[in-house]
């Protein structure tokens, strides 16, 4: 260590804090954030200034980008050639800048994310609009500062006739803060600036009317205005951008999605790769192909939709899972007097107006000074022309130019500048023509001086100049808006694009499910042969059918007591002969589970209840709201005894009557208030006492004006008035519902009928028949019913469902024979005796059965 050196101890914490603070401020003020006046970060300002100095204007020959980058990093921006070249490239990309500042020749990258060619291969020159950023730079309109080594001067800000910050936006990440400003349409920005110039107190709401929102270079559609309003008012907001797409219907009834514009800053190549991945993963199974047909004429992505899928649904899935929909987070952070400040839209406009006003004032003052200086010289020349002989003699008599200059000043009262101008005057200016020109030029200068003086004295005139210049920019560079703005909210549910209609939902024994338009099945008369509901596969058959709206929620209850949730429109739609798709692809069923019941629900609330019934006669009442958050892997709905299974679930209002029916033709009716409300994961209470090998096959919710529709395995059925089933205590053995015999077979299903309905019957061999319920005889309980469907040898009924009445008009076929209906009058005495014994049995069903909970 030199003896003259002195080491001062410094705490590392203090040094780190000071050094990091200095670095942070340097990043904020000199690197990452734009100046609110010209909207440029230092690197962009230096690139434009360097190109201006090189003379690579829009009407000149371009120069190698390496030449421009070399000048900029050598003179003004010593931060590496990559930073400078990347900035230059971005200003030349029409998909990055709303209004390009640089005209690039060569490979400057693509929207696919392809990098630009090396700067030694590319050439560039300024765009005409970029030259407007530097207009009047030579008129002392802005301040100049020393460059990094104090060898040159560079502008601290550009005069910026173009409102760059508003029309092109900017992005930058500093230390602890960031900016992300959206580009806008020049025409709309000019209108907004003029609005504020005319009335500085213009409210932001009025600015919205002429400046409705961002206008991105890649187009697209902005969904919703709330994010724009928030950003304009507070400086922060989120704007949702969607790709512009349309559905093209092909001659073969297939549909294609044509994407012509994608959101701002989205890499097309990555987008296509993501879409392909989603197809491979079957996240979006409705896509048949993806084809990129983009060329020099524009972007075009074609997405093929499978025949049985909805293009609108596929498009919304693409919006959800890919960057076809993105969010642009607006942060209007800029430097105001070298201090970072979050700005609303009016403040941004006002700062630009203030900057332009300052430029106009300085430019006018500069022009005025120049005009006065020139007029002063012309005044001296006029004096010389009026005394030309004397001046010539004076000059000839002088021994030197300095003496001549001094004598001119003393004798004619001229200034030094005037005297020098006279001495420098050429002889040709002594002609009469030149004398006239001098006089004319002098008068014009006097007029100009008067005009410039008036401008400096009248702020209104200065503001009009700003407006006139903006109008000229609008005429030269203005263009139509590229980005559409939709009032619709960004959270458009797929359901909004699905027409609401009833669908027939079928599930096979092997677990295949589908939905089919209900109009596929036309109504037939009682006793008809029906139509195929699907092509039967080996060891598979349709086990359940169900009718629900496309907009309904479906609660799937399994035989093990679990519940799953799904929307109808999310089920695969298939034709009548198709099996559909495995339900395990839609809900996560466990290996031992089978769907036992379906409950359609429009919304979940506390005013409705789910009543569940089991094979062993247990019922469970739960509030509907307890199912509002069903998970994809399901929840437990009811606890079951060993050997028991869930067979039915229904939606009730809380005060309905319930009828439980058994395989052997017994039934019990009681009010649901007899079963108190329980939660999920409970066992429930006894609903009916079973005899011998009997078990419950169905549960229906009824009122007095209902009919009870009973269908047996061999295709017989009947309707019986609910009034024939008197209310009893739950837990009893019940009364006769239908007389079960070898002829009609055991009971398959019970349905509650009210109003105009069709009945759909399905057999083990996949035959489906649709018939008018009103055509089914209404007869007593202790009867066998009438034949509803003619079954082939070995076939049997496995399920039935009610659906909306068909509009088709068909003639009724005759009844099979009168013998199909038993003579109810002959059996009346037997019914009376049976009901007498049933009263004794029902007295056993009391509240002590609740011990089963």
Topology:
Blueprint: H1 12-32, H2 42-54, E1 63-64, H3 65-75, H4 81-90, E2 102-105, E3 123-126, H5 128-131, E4 144-146, E5 153-155, H6 164-167, E6 170-173, E7 178-181, H7 186-198, H8 204-210, E8 221-223, H9 226-234, E9 236-242, E10 244-249, E11 255-261, H10 268-280, E12 287-292, E13 301-305, H11 311-321, E14 325-331, E15 333-336, E16 339-342, H12 345-386, H13 388-397, H14 401-412, H15 416-424, H16 432-457, H17 459-477, E17 484-486, E18 502-508, E19 512-517, E20 531-532, E21 542-549, E22 553-558, E23 562-567, E24 581-582, E25 595-601, E26 609-614, E27 618-623, E28 635-636, E29 646-652, E30 657-662, E31 666-671, E32 685-686, E33 696-702, E34 707-712, E35 716-721, E36 735-736, E37 747-753, E38 757-763, E39 767-772, E40 786-787, E41 797-804, H18 828-842
Parallel strand pairs: 8-17
Antiparallel strand pairs: 1-3, 2-3, 4-5, 6-7, 8-9, 9-14, 10-11, 11-13, 12-13, 15-16, 18-19, 18-21, 19-24, 20-39, 22-23, 22-25, 23-28, 26-27, 26-29, 27-32, 30-31, 30-33, 31-36, 34-35, 34-37, 35-40, 38-39, 38-41
């Amino acid at each position: 260590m030199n003896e003259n050196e002195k080491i001062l101890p410094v705490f590392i914490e203090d040094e780190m804090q000071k050094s990091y603070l200095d670095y942070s401020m340097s990043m904020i003020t000199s690197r990452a954030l734009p100046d609110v006046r010209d909207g440029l970060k230092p690197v962009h300002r230096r690139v434009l200034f360097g190109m201006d100095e090189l003379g690579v204007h829009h009407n000149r020959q371009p120069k190698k980008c390496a030449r421009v980058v070399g000048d900029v990093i050598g003179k003004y921006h010593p931060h590496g050639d990559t930073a400078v070249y990347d900035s230059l490239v971005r200003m030349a990309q029409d998909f990055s800048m709303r209004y390009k500042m640089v005209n690039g020749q060569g490979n400057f990258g693509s929207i696919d994310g392809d990098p630009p060619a090396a700067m030694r291969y590319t050439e560039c020159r300024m765009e005409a609009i970029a030259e407007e950023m530097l207009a009047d730079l030579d008129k002392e309109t802005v301040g100049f500062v020393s460059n990094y080594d104090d060898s040159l001067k560079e502008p601290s800000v550009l005069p910026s006739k173009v409102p760059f910050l508003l029309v092109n936006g900017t992005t930058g990440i500093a230390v602890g803060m960031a900016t992300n400003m959206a580009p806008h349409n020049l025409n709309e920005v000019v209108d907004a600036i003029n609005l504020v110039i005319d009335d500085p107190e213009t409210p932001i709401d009025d600015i919205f009317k002429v400046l409705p929102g961002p206008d991105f270079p890649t187009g697209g559609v902005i969904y919703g205005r709330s994010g724009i309003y928030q950003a304009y008012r507070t400086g922060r907001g989120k704007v949702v951008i969607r790709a512009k797409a349309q559905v093209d219907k092909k001659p073969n009834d297939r549909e294609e999605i044509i994407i012509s514009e994608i959101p701002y800053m989205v890499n097309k190549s990555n987008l296509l790769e993501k879409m392909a991945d989603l197809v491979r993963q079957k996240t979006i199974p409705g896509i048949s192909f993806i084809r990129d047909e983009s060329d020099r004429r524009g972007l075009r992505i074609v997405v093929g939709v499978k025949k049985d899928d909805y293009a609108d649904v596929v498009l919304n899935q693409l919006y959800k899972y890919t960057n076809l929909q993105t969010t642009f987070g607006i942060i209007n952070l800029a430097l105001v007097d070298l201090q970072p400040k979050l700005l609303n839209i009016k403040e941004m406009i006002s700062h630009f107006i203030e900057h332009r006003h300052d430029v106009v004032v300085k430019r006018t003052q500069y022009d005025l000074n120049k005009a006065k200086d020139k007029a002063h010289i012309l005044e001296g020349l006029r004096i010389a022309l009026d005394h030309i002989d004397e001046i010539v003699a004076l000059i000839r008599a002088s021994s030197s130019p300095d003496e001549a200059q001094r004598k001119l000043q003393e004798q004619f009262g001229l200034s030094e500048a005037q005297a020098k101008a006279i001495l420098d005057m050429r002889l040709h200016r002594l002609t009469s023509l030149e004398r006239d020109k001098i006089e004319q030029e002098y008068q014009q200068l006097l007029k100009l001086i008067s005009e410039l003086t008036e401008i400096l004295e009248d702020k209104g005139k200065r503001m009009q100049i700003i407006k006139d210049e903006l109008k000229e920019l609008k005429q030269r560079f203005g263009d139509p808006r590229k980005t559409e703005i939709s009032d619709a909210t960004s959270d458009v549910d797929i359901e909004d694009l699905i027409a609401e209609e009833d669908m027939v939902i079928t599930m096979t024994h092997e677990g295949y499910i589908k939905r089919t338009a209900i109009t596929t099945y036309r109504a037939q008369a009682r006793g008809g042969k029906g139509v195929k509901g699907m092509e039967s596969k080996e060891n598979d058959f349709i086990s359940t059918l169900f009718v629900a709206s496309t907009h309904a929620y479906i609660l799937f209850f399994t035989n093990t007591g679990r519940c799953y949730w799904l929307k109808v429109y999310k089920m695969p739609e298939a034709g009548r002969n198709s099996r559909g798709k495995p339900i395990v692809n839609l809900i996560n069923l466990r290996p031992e589970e089978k769907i036992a019941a379906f409950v359609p629900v429009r919304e979940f609330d506390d005013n409705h209840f789910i009543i569940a019934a089991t094979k062993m006669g247990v019922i469970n009442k739960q509030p509907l709201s307890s199912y509002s958050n069903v998970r994809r892997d399901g929840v437990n709905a009811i606890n079951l005894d060993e050997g028991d299974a869930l067979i039915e679930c229904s939606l009730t209002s809380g005060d309905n009557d319930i009828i439980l029916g058994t395989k052997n033709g017994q039934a019990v009716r009681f009010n649901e208030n007899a079963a108190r409300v329980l939660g999920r994961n409970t066992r429930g209470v006894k609903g009916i006492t079973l005899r011998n090998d009997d078990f419950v096959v169905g549960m229906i919710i009824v009122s007095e004006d209902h009919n009870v529709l009973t269908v047996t395995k061999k295709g017989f059925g009947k309707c019986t008035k609910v009034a024939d089933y008197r209310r009893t205590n739950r837990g009893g053995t019940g009364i006769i519902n239908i007389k079960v015999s070898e002829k009609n077979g055991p009971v398959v299903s019970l349905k509650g009928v009210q109003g105009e309905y069709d009945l759909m019957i399905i057999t083990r061999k996949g035959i489906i028949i649709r018939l008018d319920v009103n055509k089914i005889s209404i007869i007593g309980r202790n009867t066998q019913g009438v034949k509803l469907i003619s079954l082939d040898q070995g076939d049997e009924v496995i399920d039935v469902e009610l659906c909306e009445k068909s509009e088709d008009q068909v003639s009724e076929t005759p009844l099979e024979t009168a013998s199909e209906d038993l003579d109810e009058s002959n059996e009346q005495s037997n019914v009376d005796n049976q009901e007498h014994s049933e009263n004794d049995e029902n007295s056993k069903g009391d509240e002590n059965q609740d011990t089963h909970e």
